[in-house]
Amino acid sequence: MAKIKIFDTTLRDGEQSPGVNLNLSEKILIAEQLEKLNVDIIEAGFPAASKGDFMSVQKIAQTIKNSSVTGLARAVQSDIDAAWEALKDGANPRIHVFLATSPIHREYKLKMSKEQVVERAVSAVKYASQKFPIIQWSAEDACRTELPFLAEIIEEVIQAGANVINIPDTVGYINPYEYGKIFQYLKNNVPSINKVCLSTHCHDDLGMATANSLAAIENGATQVECTINGIGERAGNAALEEIAVALHIRNDHYKETTRINLKEISRTSSLVSELTGMVVPGNKAVVGRNAFAHESGIHQDGVLKEKTTYEIISPELVGYSSNNMVLGKHSGSHAFKSRLQELGLEIADNDVKELFVAFKELTDHKKEITDEDIIAIVLEKKLSK
Ligand code: KIV
Ligand code: ZN
């Protein structure tokens, strides 16, 4: 049984990336791919935010069977009601209620005292527990909250019925050492902490989201919140692919596993990049174009002698073919069809013919056709149906 649960928030925090706006069919394609990737939980959106968000969360909850689907809610009854209406038909519905706890948020944003924040959080969790079997509560800006107050409010929400407690680094401020210490503090100072699952949710403002998430795991977190390609608010969220692969490659150290189907990583990354328009930087860990490329003569020589000299991750592990066959205007339908198969795209013969025509047209404008181009051609066809 896998120990670390992967909570994917590509469709909620990821969709909060400036400039990203996915429509219903695009969200469903991503949710289906996340299910193939075997994520434990899909945060499908924020049902009270808009009619469109409500409808997409509802549709995803009705469609997805092998991952639990959740939705975000502020600590107010109308948000919790909207989340229930959207999620109630799901296979395994859960809610994610949040309220800020830090002095900065209490004073400037909420204009509430500590007591009022506790009271609001407790009554929201109690209300949610009348409807939902699983309730996650997040202390927004937890990492800038006074630790005794954080411990106090967490104990209160657990007593009120929360099953999962999330400690977000909302503004990407913490470092791995300090974050680990927060988890240790909570384990020692929240009497009911062992009754719940502890979750980590990190932003990448200082480039430490993955390292912080791993530090949380080392200190007792059993759920990680992350997004594909690390997309999300501002500098983004912890990248799912980095965490899942780090736990796999460095299992000697972390001794933890996930249920993630690593081979689906490349396909998921390309799909999310294509549909969100957020290009994956070439040097991005695990899924960047250069992640498995070797440029210097010394490195090339080493890799030709023995791959592991400079490669700690094999491209095949995360679903990239090591096949260097370049597709371009001279390629025939056979090579095209076999690349579709390598990419795991199951397509009927008739459709392959149509896609091949689109592929040939593209070769008039582009010298080398990449896997991302092929996925784009397939998506365009799927979405136009
Ligand atoms: O970053 C954050 O604090 C969030 C919460 C809603 C969990 O996204
Ligand atoms: Zn966030």
Automatic annotation (TrEMBL):
Cofactor: Mn(2+)
Gene Ontology cellular-component terms listed: cytoplasm
Residues binding Mn(2+), per UniProt: 13, 201, 203, 237
GO molecular function: 2-isopropylmalate synthase activity; acetyl-CoA C-acetyltransferase activity; manganese ion binding
Domain Pyruvate carboxyltransferase: 4-266
Keywords (A to Z) from UniProt: Amino-acid biosynthesis, Branched-chain amino acid biosynthesis, Cytoplasm, Leucine biosynthesis, Manganese, Metal-binding, Transferase
Entry keyword annotation includes Cytoplasm: yes
Catalytic activity field: 3-methyl-2-oxobutanoate + acetyl-CoA + H2O = (2S)-2-isopropylmalate + CoA + H(+)
Pathway: Amino-acid biosynthesis; L-leucine biosynthesis; L-leucine from 3-methyl-2-oxobutanoate: step 1/4
Biological process (GO), any one: L-leucine biosynthetic process
Enzyme class: transferase
Domain of life: Bacteria
Coiled-coil features, chain-numbered ranges: none
Similarity comment text for this entry: Belongs to the alpha-IPM synthase/homocitrate synthase family. LeuA type 1 subfamily.
Subunit structure comment from the entry: Homodimer.
Role description: Catalyzes the condensation of the acetyl group of acetyl-CoA with 3-methyl-2-oxobutanoate (2-ketoisovalerate) to form 3-carboxy-3-hydroxy-4-methylpentanoate (2-isopropylmalate).
Name of the featured protein: 2-isopropylmalate synthase
Organism: Niallia nealsonii
Lineage of producing organism: Bacteria, Bacillati, Bacillota, Bacilli, Bacillales
Span of the entire protein shown here: 1 to 385 of 511
